[in-house]
Amino acid sequence: MAELKSLAKDTAIYGVSSIVGRFLNYLLVPLYTVVLPAASGGYGVVSNVYAYTALILVLLTFGMETGFFRFANKSGENPEKVYANTLLFVGGLSLVFVALCIIFLHPISAFLGYPDHPDYVGMMVLVVALDSFQCIPFAYLRYKKRPIKFAAIKLFNIIGNICLNLFFLLLCPWLDAQGYDWVSSFYNPNYLVGYIFASNLIMSAVQMFFFSSELRGFSYRIDWGLMKKMITYSFPILIFGLVGILNQTIDKMIYPFLFDERQEGLVQLGIYSATSKVALVMAMFTQAFRYAYEPFVFGKTKDADNRKVYAAAMKYFFIFSLLAFLAVMGYMDILKYMVASDYWEGLGVVAIVMGAEIFKGIYFNLSFWYKLTDETRWGAYFSLIGCIVILVLNVCLVPRYGYVASAWASVAGYGVITLLSYVIGQKKYPVSYPLKEMAVYLILAVVLFALYHAVEIPNVVLRLIYRTLLILVFVAYIVKKDLPLKSIPIINRFVK
């Protein structure tokens, strides 16, 4: 239980940067959807470009985050040497990537569909190179169990990015409208999408200065023997990482090509991407858990009771994922204001997207078995299967059914690989997960969700009160079965 409390503590601290930070960042979505109307397709451009950068980020980190944790915790290896070699590899790969992209910037921009805006592509090339390199110092902070500095840097980056976006997208237009001529020397009212990318680039560059202590005091020499072992271990992780991120972004990458008119694809993509952001609670919880869980898993490999701890962690993750689902869907009348009203037509996909996020989180919890047994090729197999399912369903169904098909394709893709990972994992590294207890929570959540819609309540306030009571039923069950109040820090002081 002490280990789970430690995991919960780290998850909470990482959550400051992940949950709170991403929530602050997602506050930009209302701004983007206001200044970039749905019909303009501007938000579709942003989503499309960021989908490509997410893919490249995985490519440049090369699975070395997980590789670093594996070898830094491996008996006989020097953690500082492992870290230095990881920095050299990822940094070198990023430099080569930037050089090639700058040389072929115009052909790449034309291929992606932005021949008139190579500046968009150029800025994001620099952003993704900086971010990929910075992933390693961030991993080092996690290894050293320094979640506070980790969270502080993440929050600074996010708050700075928000401020720059507000400056370019709100303050500058206002100053320009008020007749301040000096603003026109650097501000173009028709370049709003470009300012979003420029803000990101500025903050990624500034963030580098915060890693000065993590980049000094090491012997930057390549240990070719160690490097070969790390590449061998990390390459399958790279493959399933690439395919895994494709699972998340392939729809956003191919949307402009699935419609007869590229502009229509961008409009559809903008609506889908914006409304999917309403499911941010699930995505942020999963990310915060991941930051704490990966070093936790590798650190527990030598403990005799590790499998029991893994099983308990899975159960609690599942429970709180369902709670997050009920909360988001219960307060949709409030959360829908995260996007402008002309995007509301896409709110029907939120529940589906959250279902996909739950499967994604369960799959991540299951994935440790092939990492601990050094059989990372299985991750590549699973990710490839999931990607094929998602890609085929998108190509076949999106032109006919639109973005709703994309949401269901994600559920299908992650559902398939979750089932495969569980079945094969139980043969390779069996863990006794409390499936019956988890099933009870699932049934209860489904029943409560159905009751949301079974009773028609026209008054918004009364509807929110009704749904809050249903959510409290789920919370009460959690407290009764698995999380008594006396076990919760601070609260236990008032409970005998």
UniProtKB/TrEMBL annotation:
The chain crosses the membrane at residues 12-29, 49-71, 83-108, 120-141, 153-171, 191-211, 231-250, 270-289, 309-331, 343-366, 378-401, 407-425, 437-455, 461-479. The keyword Nucleotide-binding does not apply. It is a multi-pass membrane protein. Signal peptide: none annotated. It comes from the Bacteria. The keyword Transmembrane applies. It holds the Pfam family Polysacc_synt_3. This is Polysaccharide biosynthesis protein. It is found in: Cell membrane. It comes from Bacteroides caecicola. Keywords: Cell membrane, Membrane, Transmembrane, Transmembrane helix.
